[in-house]
Amino acid sequence: MDKSKRLFLKSKRSFRKRLPPIGPGDRIDYRNMSLISRFISEQGKILSRRVNRLTLKQQRLITIAIKQARILSLLPFLNNDKQFERTQSTPRATGPRTINK
């Protein structure tokens, strides 16, 4: 079949419409911790709009709510629990240091 005569075939897969992460009855507020915690990564960072699938206005309101909750100590600024966990380390050499040239 010639490329110029090739028909554009549609995919036969049916796609499910994704539900919006914020429902029409949900209020975006700094006190609504169950809603806010969905938009924060494990490290405590605010997730991007693409990842959240939010509109621009919703992302702005979420960002403001997260920042207010952080200031009021409802949320931590950083979540570095993994940083302080220590795994078994290798023993250090206690002999004199040598300079490699």
Automatic annotation (TrEMBL):
The keyword Chloroplast applies. The keyword GTP-binding does not apply. It is found in: Plastid, Chloroplast. GO terms for molecular function: small ribosomal subunit rRNA binding; structural constituent of ribosome. InterPro entries: Ribosomal_bS18 (IPR001648), Ribosomal_bS18_CS (IPR018275), Ribosomal_bS18_sf (IPR036870). Pfam families: Ribosomal_S18. Keywords: Chloroplast, Plastid, Ribonucleoprotein, Ribosomal protein, RNA-binding, rRNA-binding. GO terms for biological process: translation. GO terms for cellular component: chloroplast; mitochondrial small ribosomal subunit. Coiled coil: none annotated. Belongs to the bacterial ribosomal protein bS18 family. Part of the 30S ribosomal subunit. This is Small ribosomal subunit protein bS18c. It comes from Enemion raddeanum. The gene is rps18.
